[in-house]
Structures are given as C-alpha cells and as structure tokens.
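Researcher: Re-running this chain for the archive, since the previous output was lost when a drive failed. Same request as before.
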Amino acid sequence: MYLNAKHKELVKLSIVIFVGFVFVHQLSSITPVIAQSVLKNNLSSDNPFSKLHEIKMAAVELPDGHTAYKMLEYKIIDNENQTKDITSRYSDLPTIPGPTIIMTEGDKAKLTLVNEIGRGAVSLHTHGVHYTITSDGSLKMSNKVSDQGATPKQSYTYVWTAAEGTRGSWPFHDHTFGKGSAGMNINGVETNGLFSTVIVNPANGKVDALVNGIPKEVNVEDIDKDFVLFVTDDAFWGIEIDNKNNNKHTPLWVNPTLVALKNDLVRFHIQSVGTDFHHFVIDDYKWLKPGTHETTNTEKIGPLENHVFTISADKNTSYYDKMPVHLLSGMKGKFQVIANDTTAATTSTSSIPGPSPYMQDTSKDRINSTSVPAPSPIMQDTTSNNGEISLVGSVGSE
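Model: Regenerated structure tokens:
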C-alpha cells in the first residue's frame, strides 16, 4: 500500500515509541537483578556467609627499640548484620609477630591503624589479599597517589578483600616508617617487629593435610592448633592459635617450644621477613607440597615468601633453619607432642614461649596475666650476663 511522506514519519515515530516502551519495561525488570548481583559480588562470589572484619590496631615502640603491632579492637559482622567481638582472643600487649588476622574467602576487612610510636608514619602493607591503591600502605613517592600511613595525629584505614583464589597465609608489614624522625624510609622497618600474618581459609572450609602419612582433605574447623612462625635473619618469632580453646592467640616470641597433643591436627604458617634465605626443617616429619600429594621434609624460603602445611602431631622433634650460619646463631626450637592419655589431663598443652623483648611493666599482675605467659616479658637466664638484658636473636633458645 502506498504511504505518503507524512504517514511514513508517523509510522516510524510509532515504532520508536513502542520499542522504547518495551525496552524501559524490560530494563525495569532486570535492574533489580543486576543490582542484587553486584551486591552479592561485593560481598562474596562463592561464600554465602561472608563477613566484614572491623579491626583497630596500634603500632607501638617497645623500651628496647623493637616496634610492634597491638590489637585494640576486633569485631566481625556477618551477612545478617550480627556483630561478634573477638578482641579478647588477642593479647592486650604489643606482640611480635603482631596480631594474626583470620578471614575466609569472600570476607572483607576494614583495618584502622593508630600511631602510638609518636613520630613518623606507620602503615599496613599486605600480600596475597586484594585492595585498591589507597590501601597499599606505602608512600606517595612510591604509589603516586597519597601517603598511606598513620601519623601521631591521624589514624589511617585500609580495606582488604579476601577474594576467591586468595586462600593461604600472607605476610603483612609496615611499609612507611623510617628510623629517622621524618619517617621517610620507603621500605619501612618491618624487620624490627612490624610484621604479622593474614590467614585466608578456603570458602569450602577444607584444606589438604598429611595425616599419619596419608594425604587427606580435612575440615578447617578440625584443625586443633595453628602455629605461625616468622623466619627473620636471626630468629624464629612465633604465635600459637589454640582453636580448641576459644581460638586464643598467644605470643610465643623467639624460638619457642611448640606443644600439641598426639594426633592433633596442626597447621604451620611459615613466613619470612628480612633479606636472608632459609631452609626450614622439622626432623622426622614430612608434609604435602602445596597443591600436590607429593611430600617433603624441607622448604627453601626467601624474603617475604610463605609456606603452609597441615600435619598430624606424632612425635617429639625439633624445627630449625638448616642454613649453617642461621643454625649456628640459634635458629631452632622444639616441637613437643604429649601423649593423649590420662597424663594429658594434668599436663599443660600450651606452647612454651621463648625470650622476648624487655617490657618495662614487669609488675606481678602484668607478667602473670592471661595475655602474656610468665617467661616472656623479660629475656630468660640473664644471670650469666651480669644482669644485662640480651638482644633478641643474639642467643639461641632450644
């Protein structure tokens, strides 16, 4: 049928209006779906129980010159907006390594750092987990955006995401604090004590383990203890997390004796700071190489590298750095396994701390508090040095 030009324009306009109406209608129906999808991805791609970790920590200078992180407040908010305060799991004193952060794939952490050192700018720079450039924890001269450290007058907040694929254990450390008053050393002074670990558990709640010599997949919730050992250039620094005792975090200081019950599942988190390379060994034990069913009894670890494995506690032994220069300097400790029988009920299963930096507050109440075991605030066996306090790492502790 013939249409004149005016009729053609009317037909085109009608078609445009109709198509526009259909598009708007469809868009209104899919927009909520898109929004829900984006919101879900912001929380977690795989973990329906993702949580927000709201953490406040301080950086502190110890009387002997070491620097350390201290937990001030730790709250976990679940996806139903229920809040759980877990601050009491941590020591109320500064510790080396600093407080261990434990997340699950899909979780987010908002960490606020306070500078109690009184000078410079101190930060949190993490490995492994995800963050934007404003949470890098470095200086503007490095990140080209901003200075991202906490000053004595202003705290700084970092946001980390334990995204899918970030499972494992990762070091975090200072990246801004300098030894001078200006605090402009780009590498920070992490080797002086400002270092710790963020553990990211798998969303499915399972990890590989070597149990009585057999490779198995075990539930994270069945792990009895986590041992965090930082390998520095002259000592092991440790933390024990007792998952069967309200997930209590205990500082173990230098070259500690690690203690577990026979057949306990224990997970080792070996981290490294400093500039040296190390050969970590546990005598008479083997463990799985990450992602395989191959076993090993030693691991070469370089600066800021990490190694995680889970085993069943079976026998008394020692752990140490096989590198001769480090072994001779005393980088070794014991792994003590207690028979799981009637004697275990009367025997402490807590690990035994090694020497620690000297703490000025040596009052009875502080030393015997639940935060720090009695042997740890002062270096042990100082009588042979005429009462002088030895520098940490200068003597070995078996």
